Amino acid sequence: MEDVDVVIVGAGSSGLAAAKILRAAGLTFRVFEAMGRIGGRAFTSTEHFGIPFDIGCAWLHAADRNPYFPEAEAGGWTLHHHDMNVDHLYFGKHKASESDEADMKLADQQLATLMELWAGTDDRVSSLLASGHAPRAAATFAGPMDFGKDFDEISIEDFRAAADLDPNYYSFEGFGALVARFGADVPVELATPVRKILWDVPGIACVTDRGTIRAKAVIVTASPAALAFEEIEFRPELPAAHTQAFFDLPMGMLTKLPIEIRGTRLGLSPFDDLLIERRARNDIYFLCFPFDTELMVGFVGGDFAWEISAAGEAAGVDFVTDRLCDIFGSDLRKHVGRAAMTNWGGERFVRGAYAAARPGKSAARATLMQPVAERIFFAGEHLAGPLIQTCGGARLSGEAVARQVVAQLAGASGTIPGASR
Ligand SMILES: Cc1cc2nc3c(=O)[nH]c(=O)nc-3n(C[C@H](O)[C@H](O)[C@H](O)COP(=O)(O)OP(=O)(O)OC[C@H]3O[C@@H](n4cnc5c(N)ncnc54)[C@H](O)[C@@H]3O)c2cc1C
Question: How many CB atoms lie within 10 A of CB 413?
Answer without folding.
Answer: 11
